[in-house]
Amino acid sequence: MALGEHNFKFYVDFDGTITTEDIGEEMFVQFGDAEKSYRIIKEWLDGKITSKDVWIQLCNSIEKFDKEKFDDFLLKAPVDKNFHSFLEYCKKHSFDVTILSDGLDYYINKISKQENFDKVKIYSNKLKITKEGKLIPEFPYTDEECNLCANCKRNHIISTSSDDDITIYIGDGWSDTCAAQHCDFIFAKRSLLKFCEKNSVPYFPFNNFNDVLKIVEKLRIKKRIKKRNQAMLKRRQVYMQG
Predict the structure, then answer these.
(1) CATH for 8-20+79-241?
(2) How do the domains of the chain map onto residue ranges?
(3) What is the DSSP string of 92-141?
(4) Which of 12, 33, 105, 204 is the most exposed place for a label (fewest CB within 10 A)?
């Protein structure tokens, strides 16, 4: 590969990153028991329950889910208006983009389709809604040794990138903290930013994807890019674990 020609691979969170609100949280706050939902989410943030347990408990907290009202709500789901420009930029330069979410595929698929980015690779947890309005979450991408995410984002990054790639993570939440550490560059806001600051993990702060684009373009035209040593060490640890 010639100098200045970098193989960037982007891994992007969904809730609060592509969307400007946490749709997964709003799903249960607005269409379920808000007080109970906040209590369950806080237990997860406090480390008392796993991410998988959060979804199971949240889904069990609703006896009869109003799917039609939720679908109407999703039609107005706020998406970062700069995300489409980011995707066009990546397409222009043949950069790979993968969406990694610890949310539920039901609302992610609907939003991605109505916003015309449903062709992007997406890995998330799954949700079945029965005729009776029961919510049944499924977790095809869990990792028995890591309970931070129900959908192990770290494993997706490790399995879809190589040591020759420049890996870039873009996220905002607690479920992004593990995955981000396995990437060369991190764009962070909210909980992920606080984690990076507390743990001395290098990052770029961002508010929207326009901020991301400005910095990525500067990286793209660099002749040489130094990969983050701590990210390489963490990736190596995963390889050794098998």
Answers:
(1) 3.40.50.1000
(2) 8-20+79-241
(3) HTT-EEEEEEEEEHHHHHHHHHHTT-TTSEEEEEEEEE-TT--EEEE-TT
(4) 33
